[in-house]
Amino acid sequence: MSAETETKENSTGGFGEFLEKTFKLSENKTTVKTEVLAGITSFMTMAYIIVVNPGILSNEYGANQDFNAILFSTVLISAVMTIVMGLMSNNPYAVAPGMGLNAYISFALVGGGTITWEEMMGAIIIAGALLTIMSLTPISSGVLKAIPKSLRFGLAAGIGLFLVFIGLQDAGVVINNDATLVGMNNFGLTFALFLFGLIFTAVLMLKKVNGAFLIGIVTTAILGVIFSIGGWGTNVIDENFQSIAITEIAALPDTGTFFKFDLGVILKPALIIPIFTLAFTDLFDSVSTFLGVSEVGGLLDENGDPKNFKRTLVADSLTTFVSGFFGTSDATTYIESAAGVEEGGRTGLTAVVTGLCFLPFMFLSPLLAAVPLYATAPVLVLLGVLMFKPLANIDWTNLEDAIPAFLSMVMIPFTYSITNGIVFGVISFVLIKIVLGKIKEINAWLWLTFIFSVGALIAPIFL
After folding, report:
1. 418 to each of 105, 163, 222, 286, 320, how far by Cα in Å?
2. Which residue, 231, 333, 423, 440, is most buried by CB atoms nearer than 10 A?
3. Could you give the dihedral angle defined by the CA atoms of residues 34, 36, 37 and 40, in that order, rounded to the nearest 10 degrees?
């Protein structure tokens, strides 16, 4: 599409001109239609958080909070702060309560008796305030300078592998195996539907069909419904969806967890490490996501760094800060945003659309069961393929760069943590430089990041 055509499409009417001026669509070589499709696609791949996060935080062996109250706070933080992210950063990133951190909060801290729910929300507010202050200072650009290019490429591929692993688990293809940790499930209808979605979506991508991811998700889901209605596999549709009654489809929001926080947590020395862990994990997860997704999507400035990085980090930090007030585990930027980026999303309009998609589910959350995980899983797998592209930029004959990049890549899926990828990458990079007598190549910011990485590695010992 030519720049002239883009400008014409983006400037249709007063509202179109507003969108063009706000998000600089033509400058970013995109259109309203593309951004809307991308926003919906991002939402479809991360919508699971609406029911998964309340499930974790309401577990009776964990935080034991009210499911409906957590669901409402999950939807609200995801909707409001994703829109804020789009408007502040003009980047297509979506935010929601972070997986992993929600389990840490629910089972290790609140459920483990280390901290009360109110103190936990206070800790999240304090961690968010620290992150916001850091993002407004030179520390934000310093963190970016601290990550060598080779590690950025490794992180991008590692996030891709992570997405693949998540997708294969969602589809029930990869399952737990007591002998080998993981194994492949027996072939069945759900497995077959996943393979159909994978090949069908891949063909659409090869043919460069606009909205390939979204079409693939919807088509696979509809096919599953047809099989279930025909009696060929009742397990294909979520059982909860099958039993939904009209009266259960809609419900008024529950604000039971709103403003239930205790800032007195800052006076308890024993909680310094949990606060540090929250802040550090959120920071590194977010920076890794920005680096990986921007590298693959070409969302880079003239220096080759993620565009609008500081504003993006500020928006992400504010998201953590606000999470404590809304009464949910801290929200962060989601790697599933890569789905929208690959669909063509290039500006904050994608994020705004994603945020708006969350809003109806404050009242209609049961309907999400209509989109089964095997329908979204193929998109995550295909994203993994696309996120391997940056590996071509690594000089694999130069082991000084190759080894840290490789460790960054594999430690993310193998430990189920983006933070561990950057921790192992930074530590190995610095130690290799020290052993080779190249300490002068380690700048002050990288030294600081190295110290934080070592801290993150040993912090669990004291928890």
Report:
1. 17, 11, 33, 9, 17
2. 333
3. 160
How many whole angstroms separate alpha carbon 435 and alpha carbon 439?
9
Q: Which of 84-88, 253-257, 416-420, 458-462 has the lowest mean pLDDT?
A: 458-462
User: How far is it, in rounded angstroms, from Cα 366 to Cα 307?
Assistant: 37
Burial 330-361 (b: 16+ CB within 10 A, else e): bbbbbbbbbbbbbbbbbbbbbbbbbbbbbeeb
Q: Is the pLDDT of residue 25 over 50?
A: yes
